[in-house]
Design goal:
Length: 262
Amino acid sequence: MIKGCKRIVIKIGTSTLTYSNGALNLRRIEAFVRTISDFKNAGHEVVVVSSGAVGAGFAKLALSEYPDTVEKKQACAAVGQSQLMKIYENFFANYTHTVAQILMTKDVVDDSHRLELVKNTFNTLLQMGCVPIVNENDSVSCDGIKFGGNDTLSAYVGIACNADIIINLSDINGLYNKDPRKFDDAVLIDRVDEINEEILSYAGGAGTSRGTGGMATKIQAAKIATDNGIPMIILNGEDPTILYDILDGKHVGTYFAKRKDK
Ligand code: GLU
């Protein structure tokens, strides 16, 4: 699935990056960074879409409750984003890779001129050998210029950097025909060739209290990506070295094929 893919977007969500108490799961982030560094060493170009700004800010500020208002979330994101980048910077430096921060808002991808500029930035950073780390610019974004979560953001980043594939590391193994947390007989779907009503009906509601996206937003993101000719894989990021399985050609997670006419 990925053998011929040079340019890869990997999205990692808050529930994968943090412990249930909200603090950053450094062990997992380190394993994630090491694996991506290896992907780079193997000749892939990798763009990371990382959540975790609000979570990291919440933990750093030692708040007693997870932020529930827009202004608290925006403040936490301002604290957490720099924290997050410091950690990525340090971990990637261990493997001699250079990171670059890109903070996006939806109005950028809605404006063809600005989108073109961002495309050029991605291309230039990738040519320079950097690992762009992208998040929504949560502290300044407001309704109307919001992606509404990093699942959607990852699809647009895939488009902006002309990715060969998008990998969405989640806290679930992939798309099931019903909610596996509620039904023991839920079956994991290997491959989706068309995102139709039936597929949409498989998605439940929201994800964890810390992340924002559930399966529904992931499928919507897969629709944006595959409609634009980019396949997407959803898989469990609990152990980030699962990414090697994809590299080795093993079938893990759910693969959403690009639209046939693309
Ligand atoms: N941009 C948010 C953050 O960094 C996360 C949004 C999401 O997980 O979908 O905390």
